[in-house]
Amino acid sequence: MKNIEKYRNAFINVLDVKEDDLSEDLALGKVREWDSIGHMALISEIEDVFDVSIDSEWITEFNSYQSGIELLERLGVDFINE
To answer: Which of 47, 57, 75, 77 is most buried when burial is the number of CB atoms within 10 A of its CB?
Structure first.
């Protein structure tokens, strides 16, 4: 499975978001499930799926679908050359 698919599945599974609703515009608070509890569950899922540790300073930077991709890229996850 490609990294982008793993990433998308994390949102679908944790936030109960439909595949069609996922876009770069999706952001913290835009869907009911992405509240503070959903945010921490999503971070935990992403850490498990990608075997990374997201520093507490970066947790606040992860506030949208796109910012999560950028954060993972900084942690060495490749979304381009997979």
So the answer is: 77
The mean predicted confidence, pLDDT, of the chain is 93
Query: Band of the pLDDT at 36, cuts 50, 70, 90?
Result: very high
- Average pLDDT, integer, range 41-70: 94
CA 25 – CA 30 distance, rounded (Å): 9
- How far is residue 76's CA from residue 71's CA, in Å, rounded to a whole number? 9
**CATH number attached to the domain at 3-17+25-74:** 1.10.1200.10
- Helix intervals (H) in the chain: 3-15, 36-50, 56-59, 65-74
What are the backbone angles phi and psi of residue 6, rounded to the nearest 5°?
Answer: -60, -40
Which pLDDT value is given to residue 23? Answer: 87
